[in-house]
Amino acid sequence: MATTELPANLRADVETLWAYHDMGHQPRHCDVGIGLGSHDLGVAIHAAQLYQQGLFERIVFTGANAPTTIERFPRGEAVHYREHAIELGVPADAILIETAATNTSQNLTNTRQVLADGDIHPASVMLISRPYQQRRAYATCRKVWPEVDVICLSRPLPLDKYIATIGDADRVINMLVGDTQRITEYARLGFAIEQDMPEPVHAAYQRLVDAGFTNRLI
């Protein structure tokens, strides 16, 4: 049975990875907000909040489905995100959707095309993602869309509260471990720019892998 309790013997390592993936970007006005599809409806919630704060005038929600989202969002991540943002008060005509992407690179390249099709050519974008996807999203954007000024934000929840919203500590740890691996592997494969990974982060990652959190490794 899933638990939201973070085991005490894992806390320090999980907190190390959690802090590493937070880019620490400060909210500021951008031309477009881009909500990256996932299992986490908090992305849509935070995108709606940022829109209502006047930080952008247009949102693009992007994402088809992954094995982790098909049950929760059967019509696709972007479609469900859009519906939820509208429920939260975002005008429907402020939202575009991209419904084919199945990875972060496609999220960004497809979104750029959707915007271009509407004669929208942003100089700056705000990527809204799960907390532990920030660093990978940033690195991918710098690789595939280098001309745009990019910042990354997530719903500002502390680790334990975030785990409670997801409802499964093991799932969050596995996702954190998987995204940490992707920082180096995706750069090696040419999908993203290289980023520094301090030794304490790598050591925390390795201990969590050794503890069996390997479900999201590639």
Automatic annotation (TrEMBL):
Alphabetized Pfam families for the sequence: DUF218 (PF02698)
Domain DUF218: 43-147
Superkingdom to which the source organism belongs: Bacteria
InterPro entries cross-referenced by the UniProt entry: Cell_Envelope_Assoc, DUF218, Rossmann-like_a/b/a_fold
CDD domains in the record: YdcF-like
Name the record gives this protein: YdcF family protein
Organism (species): Actinokineospora xionganensis
